[in-house]
Design goal:
3 domains; Helix Hairpins; 7 helices; mainly alpha; globular
Length: about 140
């Protein structure tokens, strides 16, 4: 028997369940709430047993590859057309969301504070890629 829960009003699952996925919620949604929703979703299905770090990393790379596949062998014009075509945009959104899910699930299950970790990584990147050396180039830090 699964666990039933009523999502909080400002969580991703609430808005998806209410058909509000097209609203811009990024500005108001709290990552901790989404991670909590994902935890409840997985626990209700007894999926912890399938979510080792290795399996979540495999899931992430698989979903990221599915996102990449949508753009493979496409010209810049064809890619732009994908974003303007609702069914194609939905496919992109699905794969992007699947990738995000695995990142959030990994962070939730193994106690990574994504905001803190991203801030720390951006500080490292700012040192590796000073504006004067990296502006307008895509070279790796050791090639600047």
């Amino acid at each position: 028997m699964g666990i039933f829960f009523i999502p909080k009003r400002d969580t991703l699952i609430y808005w998806l369940s209410m058909g509000q996925q097209n609203q811009n919620k990024d500005a108001t949604t709290v990552l901790a709430d989404i991670k909590s929703d994902i935890q409840k979703f997985c626990e209700a299905r007894d999926w912890d047993q399938f979510h080792s770090p290795k399996d979540l990393a495999i899931g992430l790379i698989t979903e990221a590859a599915e996102l990449l596949e949508l753009f493979r062998f496409k010209s810049p014009e064809e890619i732009q057309a994908l974003f303007e075509d609702p069914p194609a945009r939905e496919k992109i959104s699905d794969e992007l969301s699947d990738s995000f899910y695995f990142i959030l699930r990994f962070a939730q299950k193994y106690n990574f504070d994504l905001t803190t970790e991203l801030e720390a990584k951006m500080k490292k990147n700012a040192q590796k890629y000073p504006v004067k050396k990296s502006r307008g180039t895509n070279k790796k830090y050791n090639e600047l």
